[in-house]
Design a protein that fits this description.
four-stranded mixed beta sheet; alpha/beta; 3 helices; 2 domains; Signal recognition particle alu RNA binding heterodimer, srp9/1; about 25% strand
Length: about 130
Protein backbone atom coordinates (compact mmCIF):
# COMPACT_ATOMS: atom_id res chain seq x y z
CA UNK A 1 0.00 0.00 0.00
CA UNK A 2 1.10 3.57 -0.61
CA UNK A 3 -0.18 7.10 -0.64
CA UNK A 4 0.42 9.80 -3.20
CA UNK A 5 1.48 13.40 -2.59
CA UNK A 6 -1.41 15.14 -4.34
CA UNK A 7 -1.67 18.67 -2.90
CA UNK A 8 0.33 21.18 -0.95
CA UNK A 9 -2.01 23.37 1.10
CA UNK A 10 -1.16 27.01 1.73
CA UNK A 11 -2.99 28.91 4.48
CA UNK A 12 -3.56 32.54 3.47
CA UNK A 13 -5.79 35.58 3.81
CA UNK A 14 -6.53 36.03 0.09
CA UNK A 15 -6.58 32.73 -1.83
CA UNK A 16 -7.46 34.39 -5.15
CA UNK A 17 -4.54 36.82 -4.98
CA UNK A 18 -2.01 34.23 -3.84
CA UNK A 19 -3.20 31.68 -6.40
CA UNK A 20 -2.86 34.30 -9.15
CA UNK A 21 0.70 35.07 -7.99
CA UNK A 22 1.74 31.42 -7.99
CA UNK A 23 0.04 30.79 -11.36
CA UNK A 24 2.31 33.47 -12.81
CA UNK A 25 5.40 32.11 -11.05
CA UNK A 26 4.86 28.47 -12.07
CA UNK A 27 2.84 28.84 -15.29
CA UNK A 28 -0.01 26.94 -13.59
CA UNK A 29 -3.74 27.34 -14.18
CA UNK A 30 -6.66 27.49 -11.76
CA UNK A 31 -8.19 24.03 -11.78
CA UNK A 32 -10.82 24.42 -9.04
CA UNK A 33 -12.57 27.07 -6.97
CA UNK A 34 -14.90 26.10 -4.15
CA UNK A 35 -15.82 27.32 -0.67
CA UNK A 36 -13.32 30.19 -0.88
CA UNK A 37 -10.47 27.85 -1.77
CA UNK A 38 -8.47 27.98 -5.00
CA UNK A 39 -6.53 25.04 -6.42
CA UNK A 40 -3.88 25.50 -9.11
CA UNK A 41 -1.78 23.03 -11.04
CA UNK A 42 -0.06 22.07 -14.24
CA UNK A 43 -2.65 19.38 -14.89
CA UNK A 44 -6.17 18.40 -13.81
CA UNK A 45 -5.85 15.37 -11.54
CA UNK A 46 -7.95 12.28 -12.07
CA UNK A 47 -8.12 9.37 -9.64
CA UNK A 48 -6.94 6.98 -12.36
CA UNK A 49 -3.79 8.99 -13.16
CA UNK A 50 -2.95 9.48 -9.49
CA UNK A 51 -3.29 5.76 -8.80
CA UNK A 52 -1.18 4.88 -11.87
CA UNK A 53 1.87 6.99 -11.01
CA UNK A 54 3.14 9.89 -8.92
CA UNK A 55 2.12 13.14 -10.60
CA UNK A 56 3.13 16.71 -9.74
CA UNK A 57 1.13 17.96 -6.75
CA UNK A 58 -1.29 20.84 -7.01
CA UNK A 59 -1.28 23.90 -4.74
CA UNK A 60 -4.43 24.53 -2.73
CA UNK A 61 -4.89 27.99 -1.17
CA UNK A 62 -7.31 28.09 1.74
CA UNK A 63 -8.47 31.10 3.74
CA UNK A 64 -7.51 31.36 7.39
CA UNK A 65 -8.05 34.27 9.79
CA UNK A 66 -4.60 34.34 11.36
CA UNK A 67 -1.49 35.77 9.73
CA UNK A 68 1.90 34.19 9.26
CA UNK A 69 3.86 34.44 12.51
CA UNK A 70 7.21 32.66 12.07
CA UNK A 71 9.53 31.29 9.40
CA UNK A 72 7.90 28.54 7.35
CA UNK A 73 8.86 24.99 8.29
CA UNK A 74 8.10 23.95 4.71
CA UNK A 75 8.73 26.03 1.61
CA UNK A 76 8.85 25.78 -2.16
CA UNK A 77 12.03 25.93 -4.22
CA UNK A 78 11.75 27.09 -7.82
CA UNK A 79 14.32 26.88 -10.62
CA UNK A 80 14.18 29.21 -13.63
CA UNK A 81 13.91 27.30 -16.92
CA UNK A 82 14.46 29.98 -19.54
CA UNK A 83 16.61 32.71 -18.01
CA UNK A 84 19.14 33.42 -15.31
CA UNK A 85 18.43 33.24 -11.60
CA UNK A 86 18.89 37.02 -11.40
CA UNK A 87 16.38 37.60 -14.23
CA UNK A 88 13.85 35.36 -12.47
CA UNK A 89 14.32 37.19 -9.17
CA UNK A 90 13.61 40.47 -10.99
CA UNK A 91 10.48 38.99 -12.60
CA UNK A 92 9.22 37.70 -9.24
CA UNK A 93 9.84 41.07 -7.58
CA UNK A 94 7.73 42.66 -10.35
CA UNK A 95 4.95 40.13 -9.59
CA UNK A 96 4.84 41.15 -5.93
CA UNK A 97 7.46 38.95 -4.24
CA UNK A 98 10.05 40.41 -1.89
CA UNK A 99 13.55 39.40 -0.90
CA UNK A 100 13.61 37.70 2.50
CA UNK A 101 16.22 37.21 5.18
CA UNK A 102 15.85 34.02 7.19
CA UNK A 103 19.45 34.02 8.34
CA UNK A 104 20.79 32.43 5.18
CA UNK A 105 23.77 34.77 4.84
CA UNK A 106 24.95 36.38 1.62
CA UNK A 107 27.26 33.68 0.23
CA UNK A 108 24.57 31.39 -1.19
CA UNK A 109 23.77 30.08 -4.66
CA UNK A 110 20.04 30.60 -4.06
CA UNK A 111 17.87 33.62 -3.29
CA UNK A 112 15.32 33.55 -0.47
CA UNK A 113 12.12 35.40 -1.32
CA UNK A 114 8.64 35.82 0.13
CA UNK A 115 5.34 35.70 -1.74
CA UNK A 116 2.79 38.53 -1.31
CA UNK A 117 1.62 37.08 2.04
CA UNK A 118 5.13 36.55 3.40
CA UNK A 119 5.57 32.81 2.74
CA UNK A 120 9.24 32.13 2.07
CA UNK A 121 10.43 30.33 -1.04
CA UNK A 122 13.81 29.97 -2.74
CA UNK A 123 14.94 30.68 -6.28
CA UNK A 124 17.62 28.13 -7.12
CA UNK A 125 20.09 27.84 -9.98
CA UNK A 126 18.81 28.24 -13.49
CA UNK A 127 17.93 25.19 -15.56
CA UNK A 128 18.03 27.20 -18.79
CA UNK A 129 20.29 25.81 -21.50
CA UNK A 130 23.77 27.31 -21.26
CA UNK A 131 25.23 28.55 -24.53
Amino acid sequence: MASRFTELVVDCHDPERLAAFWCEVLDFKVIDRSKGMVEIGSWVPTAEEVRARQMPPTLLFIPVPEGKAVKNRLHLDVSPIDGSTEDEVTRLLDLGAARADVGQGSDRSWVVMADPEGNEFCVLRTLAPQN
